[in-house]
Write a structure and sequence with these properties.
The chain has eight helices and ten strands. By secondary structure, the protein is α/β, with parallel strands linked by helices.
């Protein structure tokens, strides 16, 4: 593939019903911008037909690359893996479950002219959010803890659409340790530590699922780990000793 301007990282775990639709939406939106792009699907150990359906789509579209491994290691690991394999100057992360309206992608791309990373925020005044009350309350509590523990001046770190300049994060992503849900918190905590400029944009999102108590507990434990590395042992300021390596991964080019 020639020089790539945009890379879309799509982590997928058991998304057989949505993966092809998500890829189709990204294709349609980006083709209208007339930019060179790639879509990197990271199959995070799915137990359903996610990989089969992604391969099917990739067989019809040369922009799609698939990375797959057999064990479910978490969204954070999948995003990190995708980033380290991305070729684009700009990298988007987006969920594969079609809960977020991706039509705003061009706005995020334009906003990168004035920022290092652009993130979707459910708290933006122009956002349209449908979410169960219990999940809204849980998110509010978690976000308060995030700001208190890490000092991140943001009211929403978890929305599943982010765009960044790859050059600004090439030395940050390999430092990140969280493999699952609190990956976004760690990413933004380190970006804040290094003085990168963050811009928040509105998002249209419909969230149906509620957080499980076990998920909330593990997110809290991850947050404690991030705080320990950030505040106590200054992990993120340490020099990178070795290059990030990928284990038990095979790639399939579409």
């Amino acid at each position: 593939m020639s020089q790539v301007e945009l890379s879309f990282i799509v982590p997928a775990y058991n998304e057989e019903n949505f993966i092809e639709g998500t890829l189709g939406i990204i294709d349609t939106i980006v083709m209208n911008k007339s930019l060179s792009y790639e879509i990197v699907v990271v199959n995070d150990g799915s137990a359903d037909n996610t990989l089969i359906n992604a391969k099917k789509y990739a067989g019809k579209n040369g922009h799609v690359k698939i990375i797959s491994y057999s064990q479910n290691l978490g969204k954070g690991h999948a995003v990190k893996t995708g980033f380290m394999n991305a070729k684009g100057n700009v990298v988007f992360f987006t969920d594969s479950d079609m809960e977020i309206d991706l039509k705003k992608i061009p706005e995020y791309l334009d906003a990168l002219n004035q920022a290092d990373i652009v993130i979707a925020s459910k708290k933006h005044k122009n956002s349209h959010v449908t979410v169960p009350l219990s999940r809204r309350i849980q998110s509010e509590i978690f976000n308060v803890l995030v700001r208190l523990f890490t000092g991140i001046p943001l009211k929403d770190t978890q929305s599943g659409l982010k765009a960044m300049k790859k050059s600004a994060f090439v030395d940050i992503i390999p430092r990140l340790a969280v493999k699952r849900y609190a990956f976004d918190v760690e990413l933004l905590a380190v970006a804040n530590l290094y003085g990168l400029k963050v811009t928040e944009l509105p998002v249209d999102v419909k969230l149906d699922a509620k957080f499980k108590p076990s998920e909330m507990w593990h997110m809290f434990l991850d947050l404690l780990g991030i705080t320990y590395r950030l505040r106590i042992i200054h992990w993120y300021q340490r020099p990178l000793q070795t290059k990030y390596s990928l284990k038990n991964i095979f790639s399939i080019s579409g």
